[in-house]
Amino acid sequence: MTASPPRLLTPGPTPLPPEVLAALGQPIIHHRTPQFQAVLQEVADGLKGVFRTSWPVYLLAGSGTAAMEAAVANLCSRGDDALVLRAGKFGERWGELCAAYGVRVIPLDAPWGRVPSPAQVQQALRDHPSVKGVFATLCETSTGVVEDIRGYAQVVQATPAVLVVDAISGLGAEPLETEAWGVDVVVAGSQKALMLPPGLAFITASPKAWGLIERSTSPRYYLSLPLAKKVWDKEQDTPFTPAITLIVALAAALRVIRQEGLDQILERHRKNAEAIRHAAQAMGLALYAEPSCCSRAVTAVAVPPGVDGKKLVKAMRDQHGITIAGGQSELAGKIFRIASMGHIQPDDIRAAIAALERVLGDLGWTFPTGAGSKALAEVLV
Ligand SMILES: *Cc1c(COP(=O)(O)O)cnc(C)c1O
Question: Which domains does the chain possess?
Answer without folding.
Answer: 7-14+262-379 (3.90.1150.10), 18-259 (3.40.640.10)
